[in-house]
Amino acid sequence: LLHLFDGASHAQTTALLLATGFLLGGPANLISTAISADLGSHDSLREDTAALATVTGIIDGTGSVGAAIVQFLVGYLAGCHPVGEGGTMVCTWGPVFVLLQVSGILSCVCLVPLVANELKRTCRR
């Protein structure tokens, strides 16, 4: 979509970023929940609530670290710099949207085995 909004205004860029956050934020939370639920059904963790809580904490902590890294990458990839005497900040958003697209695709790829196992389990019933 970004190429359709080349030279987008502040409002258009804001709308695109809000839409991207809305469309990625919910699935990101669902992914961590699905992984925790899948681990909860694993035989080795079923009776050990402390181990399950530890694994869930590691998953959530990894997500938080990933979010912090992405925040740094957004600032770096946008390459904002002042232009002119007024110091108006100009940013290049193309690489940021590529990062978001690649992140979304990689998330989907990582979920393929989980979805395949769930489909196999459902078909056996």
Automatic annotation (TrEMBL):
Domain of life: Eukaryota
Main localization, broad class: membrane
Record keywords, A-Z: Membrane, Transmembrane, Transmembrane helix
Keyword Transmembrane: yes
Membrane topology summary: Multi-pass membrane protein
Transmembrane segments: 15-37, 49-73, 93-116
Subcellular locations according to the entry: Membrane
Name this protein carries in UniProt: Major facilitator superfamily (MFS) profile domain-containing protein
Organism of provenance: Aphanomyces astaci (Crayfish plague agent)
Taxonomic lineage from the root: Eukaryota, Sar, Stramenopiles, Oomycota, Saprolegniomycetes
